[in-house]
Amino acid sequence: MREEIFAAARSLSAHGLVTAFGHASARQGADAFLITPPVPLGSLWHGDVLHEVSLDRDELPEGVPGEVWVHWAIYNARPELNGICRAQPPVATALASAGVPIKPLHGQGAFVGREVPVYEDARLIRGREAGEALAKSLGSAHGVIMRGNGAVTVGESIGAAVSRMWVLERSAEINRDAASAGTPRALDEEEFAYWDGLNAEILPRIWRYLKANA
């Protein structure tokens, strides 16, 4: 699991999804998770410390990211999830700040949902209450954009979470480019259902690509 977390950190950095800020985590058993330290993810080395955080209590260990509450609240709300990443995808963030919804205009766009929800508070998630509010905005979705403050994506593994962050940014770019060229046409219900059914097949391939190019 440690190697997957370090691979997630390298991939998010190499593909321009984080700069100085961002973090990634993976569930550790039923009642804890491992999270990256509060340093630029691209600077992490295999020997660096990953922090274990308990889901059973809200007393946090020293040295964790200030926004660890993002992970704590989402893991508690969504027991089926095993990976979360917090990043700053630039185009997705810009579209949310402009009030432009991100919709699936290409097949892989379905992997982040029919329309990506937006958390409307631009402040950092520095407490339990804020974390729970973000988790509520996420709901059952695969990701949520934090207006003026980046995005969070989730998955059944940390690789799926990172892959969805990459897909989110690619989808945002396609939405932007399509709007500048003409009238965007989203996937219809049948097309969306088809592509949504390919999550388990295609996300691992995206994850392999991201790691190979990190």
TrEMBL record:
GO molecular function ontology, one term from the record: aldehyde-lyase activity
Highest taxon in the source lineage: Bacteria
InterPro entries given in the database record: Aldolase_class_II_sugar_metab (IPR050197), Aldolase_II/adducin_N (IPR001303), Aldolase_II/adducin_N_sf (IPR036409)
Domain Class II aldolase/adducin N-terminal residue range list: 3-176
GO cellular component, one term: cytosol
Lyase listed as a keyword: yes
Pfam families according to UniProt: Aldolase_II (PF00596)
Record keywords, A-Z: Lyase, Metal-binding
Biological processes per GO annotation: pentose catabolic process
Record's protein name: Class II aldolase/adducin family protein
